[in-house]
Amino acid sequence: MKFKRILTVQDISCVGQCSLTVALPILSACGLETAVLPSAVLSTHTGGFKGYTFRDLTDDMPAIAAHWKKEGIDFDCLYTGYLGSAKQVGIVSDIASSLLKKGCPFIVDPAFADNGAMYPGFGPDFAGAMRKLAFSADIILPNITEACLLTGTEYRAEPDEAWVDSLVRKLHAEGARTVVLTGVSYSPRTTGVLVSSEEGRYYYRHVRYKRGCHGTGDIYSSAFVGALEAGRSVNDAARIAADFTVSCIRATASDRDHWYGARFEPVLGELIGAIRAEN
What we know:
By secondary structure, the protein is of the alpha/beta class. The chain has a single domain, classed as UDP-N-acetylmuramoyl-L-alanine:D-glutamate ligase (3-Layer(aba) Sandwich). It is built from nine helices and eleven strands. The strands form two sheets. Strands 3-2-1-4-5-8-9-10-11 form a nine-stranded mixed β-sheet, sandwiched between helices. The protein has a two-stranded antiparallel ribbon with strand order 6-7. The chain is globular and about 50 Å long. The chain starts with a strand and ends with a helix.
């Protein structure tokens, strides 16, 4: 298999097990040369920490991309996570046009909302900017809230299958090619991921833990991209990433002091094993 170079664009939260501090080790463990383009540097993530520092790197991003282009550096996959502004979304769109090899996948995790609301700090223009980026991608990985905001659909905390089917059809109508919809729960004890593309629908159900963890969306997306670019199918990658994320939550659930993230490091071997088992 060809040794691939992937570019991931998202912030660095120095402490907190999310964004690039999750994506870089997971993608590397999947056997991918991983290049990074930080959108910002924070001392911690914003979920529960107070007084964190924040350094916006928006103005640095175009110069970094220009240097890569001058050096003839390009990428076999582009995967985006948390982007802090509409301007950054536009920069990523330009990078996809100029530095992503022809025919290679552009994968967008919208990463701007959850539990029925946008994350703090996003203005009213952000959803529109993200809509353009997401619907230009080959694969999008929204949760239910993000899918609602991308399609102008009223959020439901307890969706049924007919409503989810309608939501997915709206995403395709807007231009989405392959949708990997996370957090699709039809019962209190389980949740799952729904994959929808021209090839059909696939739903993978797994156990639902009462305790949530910060950063599990980043863990899931990174594991999905890693498995996909390691040669697995979209459906297999969705399943492998779901099982890995559940293992990370299970490894963290008993430690009440570890509230700020999920312990993915001790179970990285499970992810690697699952990818290899599919060969």
